[in-house]
């Protein structure tokens, strides 16, 4: 039996994922947490899991932050990122941070089951779209886009601002001070050569980081 832990801040999403996995017959969801704090509590309990299903957009530490922490700690569960963000936005970044796979929440439920089984075996899971991206990058490397040079937190700030969120809302969601979020915003504008939030939003839409 494959033992799975869910880490997502939306209870309804966790319920849907749980139902999908339990119906597979060979997968057991042994726990659910809503953020990194909950994940740490679970780890202290010492209950082992085979696969951690991890969302990117978590309160406080993002899923990308969690991937980096787990990679540094070593010996943790294999992570499968299940996110609403399209593959081209975060998949490669997550794989580089230590994820064993990346699945979009809007995809086929059977794809999630297949991904969990592969990751539990210690194998990487990528969708055909991600595989194509990797092949194209190997055969004809493209110049690095400006936003690919952003840190994980800077990219997260960029996406949230471009989605219309106020700095105070972003600070509350990420458990940061408004001043810290303003610093991230300033770094993003500088690295992208932009002047204001309007230009930042246009950039994000053109690059497919948010919906137009």
Could you explain how this protein is built, in words?
Keywords: DNA-binding, Phosphoprotein, Transcription, Transcription regulation. Residues 143-208 form the HTH luxR-type domain. InterPro entries: CheY-like_superfamily (IPR011006), NreC/VraR/RcsB-like_REC (IPR058245), Sig_transdc_resp-reg_C-effctor (IPR016032), Sig_transdc_resp-reg_receiver (IPR001789), Tscrpt_reg_LuxR_C (IPR000792), WalR-like (IPR039420). One of its GO terms (molecular function) is DNA binding. It is a single chain. The mean pLDDT is 87. Helices cover 52% and strands 13% of the residues. A five-stranded parallel beta sheet has the order 2-1-3-4-5, with helices on both faces. Helix 3 (63-73) links the parallel strand 3 (51-54) and strand 4. Helix 7 (152-162) crosses helix 9, helix 7 (152-162) packs across helix 10 and helix 8 (167-174) packs across helix 9 (178-192). It folds into two domains: 2-138, 3-Layer(aba) Sandwich (Rossmann fold), CATH 3.40.50.2300; 146-206, Arc Repressor Mutant, subunit A (Orthogonal Bundle), CATH 1.10.10.10. It is globular. The chain has 212 residues and is an alpha/beta fold.
Produce the secondary structure layout.
Blueprint: E1 2-7, H1 11-22, E2 27-33, H2 36-45, E3 51-54, H3 63-73, E4 78-83, H4 87-96, E5 101-104, H5 109-120, H6 128-139, H7 152-162, H8 167-174, H9 178-192, H10 197-206
Parallel strand pairs: 1-2, 1-3, 3-4, 4-5
Helix pairs in contact: 4-6, 7-9, 7-10, 8-9
């Amino acid at each position: 039996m494959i033992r799975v832990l869910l880490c997502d801040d939306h209870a309804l999403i966790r319920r849907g994922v749980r139902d999908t996995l339990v119906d597979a017959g060979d997968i057991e969801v042994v726990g659910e947490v809503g953020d990194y704090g909950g994940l740490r509590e679970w780890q202290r309990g010492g209950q082992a899991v085979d696969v951690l299903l991890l969302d990117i957009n978590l309160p406080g530490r993002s899923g990308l932050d969690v991937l980096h922490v787990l990679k540094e700690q070593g010996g943790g569960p294999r992570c499968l990122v299940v996110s609403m963000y399209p593959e081209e936005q975060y998949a490669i970044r997550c794989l580089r941070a230590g994820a064993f796979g990346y699945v979009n929440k809007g995809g086929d439920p059977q794809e999630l089951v297949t991904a969990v089984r592969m990751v539990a075996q210690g194998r990487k899971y990528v969708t055909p779209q991600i595989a194509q991206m990797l092949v194209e990058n190997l055969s004809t490397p493209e110049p690095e886009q400006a936003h690919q040079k952003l840190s994980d937190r800077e990219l997260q700030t960029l996406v949230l601002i471009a989605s219309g969120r106020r700095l105070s809302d972003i600070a509350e969601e990420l458990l940061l001070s408004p001043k810290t979020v303003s610093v991230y915003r300033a770094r993003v504008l500088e690295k992208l050569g932009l002047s204001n939030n309007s230009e930042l939003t246009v950039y994000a839409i053109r690059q497919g980081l948010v919906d137009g």
